[in-house]
């Protein structure tokens, strides 16, 4: 801590959303003065230019000692984005539970130890990136704020478990936590990843780059999306939120755009034309279809909207943000 | 395993519900032949008379090695009732998470290791005793089967976390699990315990024994109850259930009786008269009122009812079962 200036730790700061978040904070989006921002990840994270100190450190948060090392910094705000993705966690049961669940628990325990050591004065804002993967089929037409968590992937179960910890550690006053259930982030820049949801971005990103993309699910597949810019924006908003407004419920479904793959493709056609659309190659994949069939399709995120969280209005807007933020405005 | 005869492990077999369960199994209520039943607890459990081998062993399930020792028996059915109660878990944060959450996880990990060592053939039925404490206020008039878990006690969070593990380990085929969310068990025999819900039994049990009882909450307090006999019956039924009927949702709200403290007292009056009722002494306790205010009051347990789980119809019936089972039929 440095006077009224906030110190910030981003775990998973090298990942796509972590980098967007660091960029928004560096650009002053947090709205409060910052003295220092530390980006932690397995590999050294790229650092945005900022008017305050920004640095990077590496380590595996699944190691208890690494969690302790990070908590010992006593950052005012902890953004916890460190995780392995859904496809990886599904294929590697132990690794997933180790990193996504035990790792989060070690971190919260390490922070609790700092809280105790400080005589109770250290209570950081803790913003956890959860996921709509905490939900499992069958679903109502729109998932409301009181719908049960019944995850159908290990990744979703690990996120739901961490949410329970965040809520109980907050209730006890060790942290001031909030869990943000991100929609599927689309359009992700860069390469495809191991997430089963990777293709939702691929079918837009690759054609815009003049490359072929595989579509492993039927065009009727409906899903829930938000842009990387919105995802980082949710986390920034969560860091500033008056958590007294949350009552005993510290997990929030975020706003987003519900659309089918056909509607995604239609939006791509409007923006980039038929030549782009022709680069999408349907190639059904039973494994991915099985996972995605158990994923949410639409939400009524009333609480989050009331609390001021904002996302895109339609999928065209999501593509335009990708073009603005990643392609220098040119499709 | 011994031919078609089932081997049974009851963790928490020395507790009140564990003992009722052991008694029902010893009396042949499981409906399938049993060759052996092992009761595990911190202290040596009493053994019911049975036509098969019944024995006891002691240890702390929060120790990984103890969980491994139990899993190494490869019981066909594991009933997991080992836990510290809500008041204890709320007062002792570390102990609660250690026993109720980490202990359950160690146990599931130990079973998974046996599953792997068996080449995948060992997949025990795993019946976990969860609790309505997984729910937190505000509530709808009746809690339905798709209502969110938002526990407002550490105990509830620990139960909800174990449910997530049971569901994911089942989905992966390591166990064939089911989580039974017990109502508050009433009338508990014996002494008051550290559970914040202890008084719900005390205000019936103590007056029936001619003793004074403290009522720490207002008479309008509404809650959800089932008898110890029903609780054990739920677990027996869960052990026999065709889990394919559960789909991806392995946690079930049990049936029960919704009534106010005033209605409890009225039932006591009918059965034991005004002299018994006079022994109840109102003495508001802010801590207990605070905990109980966040507890469920009424349910619509449609799935469980459809799956054949049965409880009492009213609170008078609950008192009569206590008198039958604990007082030799005489109030």
Explain this structure to me?
The structure is a homodimer of 331-residue chains. Chain A has 12 helices and 12 strands. In chain A, 53% of the residues are buried. The longest helix of chain A is centred in the first third of the chain and has 25 residues, at 93-117. In chain A, the strands form 3 sheets. The first copy, chain A, has a 7-stranded parallel β-sheet, sandwiched between helices. In chain A, strands 7-9-11 form a 3-stranded mixed β-sheet. Chain A has 2 domains: 6-182 and 228-253, Rossmann fold; 198-224 and 257-298 and 311-326, Alpha-Beta Complex (UDP-galactose 4-epimerase, domain 1). By secondary structure, chain A is an alpha/beta fold. The termini of chain A are far apart. Chains A and B meet through helix 5 of A and helix 5 of B.
Uncertain runs of chain A = none
Beta strands of chain A, count: 12
Number of domains of chain A: 2
CATH architecture term of the largest domain in chain A: 3-Layer(aba) Sandwich
**Helix proportion of residues of chain A, in percent?**
40-55%
User: What characterizes the major β-sheet of chain A?
Assistant: 7 strands, parallel
The secondary-structure class of chain A comes to: alpha/beta
Quaternary structure:
homodimer
Task: Kindly report the greatest chain-chain contact and the residue count on each side.
Answer: A-B, 28 and 28 residues
**So, the CATH homologous superfamily of the largest domain in chain A?**
NAD(P)-binding Rossmann-like Domain
Number of discrete helical segments of chain A: 12
Overall average pLDDT of chain A = 95
How do the SSEs of chain A run, as a string of H and E? Answer: EHEEHEHHEHEEHEEHEEHHEHHH
Question: What is the straight-line distance between the termini of chain A?
Answer: 43 Å
> What is the class of the largest domain in chain A in the CATH system?
Alpha Beta
